[in-house]
Each structure stands twice: as structure tokens, then as C-alpha cells.
Amino acid sequence: MKVAVLTLGCKVNKYESDALIFELKNRGYDATENLEFADIYIINTCAVTNEAEKKSRQMIERARKFNPNAKVFVMGCASQNRPSQFEDRDVNFIIGTANKKKILDLFDEQGEKIFDLPKEYEDDLFSAQTLTRAFIKIQDGCDNFCTYCIIPYLRGRSRSRSLESVISEAEKLGEDVKEIVLVGIDVSDYKIDGQKGLGTLLERLDGLGKRLRLSSMEDGLIDEEFMGKLSSLKNFCPHFHLSLQSGCDSVLKKMNRKYTTAQFEGSVNLIRKYFPLAGITTDIIVGFPTETEEDFESTLEFVERVKFSQLHIFPYSKRTGTASAKLYGDLSGTVKAERLKRLENLGYKFKKDFILQNKTGKVLIEEQNGEFFEGYTENYIKCYINAEESKLSVGDIVEVEIGEPFKDGAIAKVKK
């Protein structure tokens, strides 16, 4: 019997889906992550925006086009948020974000069960990684309660995986895995025995000899002690995805972000003190309900000053149940789209500038796509290497000379 596990949303969802596929294969199923013919489809949904929920619903219809008679099971943030949106779509069973492994025992069941959100880390999912880059989930939930965000209500409070469990999974990775990416809903809040533990975890993992990369982080993690630890590691990749959300202090306050622009800029400067060519990427929300044109201009000026290597820009999405939806109205889609375009143009400029600052880098070859080998430098520049001119294999780590910007990255040549 064939089972397709289809994933929307974040790297945490991707890790959890990969773990389900691993377990399905252990149970004798033919399991895949691809949207293709299957007897059973498991849809791992996302609810970070209204559009993400819409895509989660549409995924059911896309799956049914491959097999109208298939069984369909739904789980994840969208079903945790509003299971009723899936009830009239001829699905077999609906669960939420908790007890995801339980869905594998429900293939003969019909119904709905939204389990209580756990207070401790659910350590029952493990993924056997076979690609060059492995995601390892170290944390779940969030305590930040930003006014625009619904995720803390869907994932629960922050909770950390034990150090021993993370290390155990990492030690089981095969030689083909050359890079570990630590993921979670709020990786910055990873704790060991109730104390900040991310630096200690990275120190332990560094001995495995694989490149180490962090997913999205919060500003409060960055201090001299943490940066000192990172700079002493042999295998740390200096790429920091530091979520900003707005470059205006009044908007940050209404978002319940726990820093000012001055504090954030201080963190960026501290990163560059230890890693002068660090890739510093960020998320920015445009069109928060109280954002005036002057507020948005402040964001543009802040981005000009900081010079991020890449921007991830999202129009504000009003989420029922969040504080901002209760307190404020909403700006027009036209205003959001116009601001998004202006910020995108600025982001392209600084991405190009960052690429041109880098003359060399070490690239992990992740795939061959047509005429190019593709992979990322340690500071997260995507490189395209001519396959005919380079005798490479997927999994190689090679030093390259970085050339002109190309597509979403840069042309590169293997350094002689």
C-alpha cells in the first residue's frame, strides 16, 4: 500500500513529515513525500497565514486528482486551528499538532480527534536522513505571543528536546549527511535543565565533523557569550536568520516584539564583529494594521542601514484569535502589495551587494539540476557551478570563487 505524506509550511513540519515517512517504511508501507498516485494521503497543514490555510485545503483536492478513491488524513496547524474547514471535504480523519504519530494507527478509522497540546516535548518522531543536509528538530512551541501570530495557540508553550536525544539522532546520521540544520518553532529558546542551552548543544554537535546551521532566531539570543561560543566552533555556518518584522519601534511595540531597532542593530553589529561576512537574513511583515506610511519609511531606512543579505517579506495576514485581530482593523491589499514591492526592490539590491562582497566560499553540493551543480556556501549564498567544467558529486564540499549574481544566487567556479 502506498502512502504520500504531503507537507505545507515550515521546516518543523518537514522534519515531522520525514519522520512519519521513516516510520511508515518501517511498518512495511511504500511511502513518499511526492504528490503522486497513492492509496492514502496524509496532509501536514500550515496556518501561519490565511493563504497557508487555503493552500492546505487545496492540497486535498490536488491529491484526489491523482486518486479519487484514496483515503485522506489531515493533521497540523490548520486543522488544530479550525478543524471544521476540513470536515466537509470527504476526509477520513482529522487530528491537530499533537500526537502526530498517532495518525498512522488511524488508517481504518473515521472521525476527528484534536489532542490536548503537550506540556513536555513529544520525543516520539525520528527521521533517518539520507540527503546531504539533515534537519533535526530540537524544540517545539513558543512563549513569545507576538500580537499577529497564531502559532503559540496551535503549537503550545515552548518545550525543548533533551540534549541526549538530539545528540543520539545526530550520531546516527550517515556519512552522506554533511550538514545539520537545527530547527524548531523558536530555536532561540532551546533549554537544557531550564537554562539557555543552544550554545552547549552546538559545542557537543561540533565534534561530529558536520557543518552546523541554525534556522530562524530571535534577537535576545545574541550576546557576547553566545557569539564567543559560536566563533570557537570548527563547523558552524555563519548564517543568521534573525527575525525583525518591522524597522519601526512603535510598530514593534504593537507587535509585542521584545526589542527595539537599536537593540536589533546592536545584535547585527555584534554578529559582524565575530563573523564579518556572515549572512544575515530576516523576516519582515508589511502592512501591520497600525503601520503608517511614515512607519514603513522607517523600515526602509532601517533596512538601508543594516544591509541584510536577504529579505523574506510577508504582507500582514489577519488571524482570528490573535491580539492584533481583536485590537486593530486591517490595511487594504493594495497598500500591502505596494509596500511589499518597494521593500522587495531594496532587498534585491542588498542581496546583490552581499554576493559581490564574497570572493570565495565553501559550497556543499546538494543536487545537480541540468547544467549546474547547486549548493550553498557556509554564509548561505546559493551557488551554481557548471557541471561540464567541474568533476563533482552530490555531497562534495568544494572551495569556490564566487562570481556574478545569477538567478537566486551566484555563478561560481571551483577554486584551482
Question: How is the topology of this model organized?
Answer:
Blueprint: E1 2-7, H1 11-26, E2 30-32, E3 40-45, H2 50-66, E4 71-76, H3 77-81, H4 84-87, E5 93-94, E6 111-112, E7 133-137, E8 139-140, H5 151-155, E9 159-160, H6 163-171, E10 179-183, E11 191-192, E12 195-196, H7 198-206, E13 211-214, H8 224-231, E14 239-241, H9 249-255, H10 261-274, E15 279-286, H11 293-306, E16 310-315, H12 323-327, H13 333-357, E17 360-369, E18 372-376, E19 382-386, E20 397-406, E21 409-414
Parallel strand pairs: 1-2, 1-3, 3-4, 4-5, 5-6, 7-10, 10-13, 14-15, 15-16, 19-21
Antiparallel strand pairs: 8-9, 11-12, 17-18, 17-20, 18-19, 20-21
Helix pairs in contact: 11-13
In CATH, the architecture of the largest domain is Alpha-Beta Horseshoe
* Residues in helices, as a percent range: 25-40%
Give average pLDDT, whole number. Answer: 96
Low-confidence runs of at least 5 consecutive residues:
none
Helix tally? 13
Distance between the termini: 50 Å
Strand composition percent:
15-25%
* Main sheet properties: 6 strands, parallel
Strands side by side in the biggest sheet: 2-1-3-4-5-6
Counted up, domains total: 3
Describe the global form.
globular
CATH top-level class of the largest domain: Alpha Beta
Number of strands: 21
CATH topology of the largest domain: pyruvate-formate lyase- activating enzyme
Q: Which superfamily, in CATH terms, is the homologous superfamily of the largest domain? A: tm_1862 like domain
Radius of gyration: 22 Å
Structural class: alpha/beta
Question: What would you note in describing this structure?
Answer:
The chain is an alpha/beta fold and 416 residues long. The strands form six sheets. Strands 2-1-3-4-5-6 form a six-stranded parallel β-sheet, sandwiched between helices. A five-stranded mixed β-barrel has the order 17-18-19-21-20. A three-stranded parallel β-sheet has the order 7-10-13, with helices on both faces. Helix 11 runs parallel beside helix 13. The protein folds into three domains: 111 residues, Rossmann fold; 224 residues, tm_1862 like domain (pyruvate-formate lyase- activating enzyme); 57 residues, OB fold (Dihydrolipoamide Acetyltransferase, E2P) (Beta Barrel).
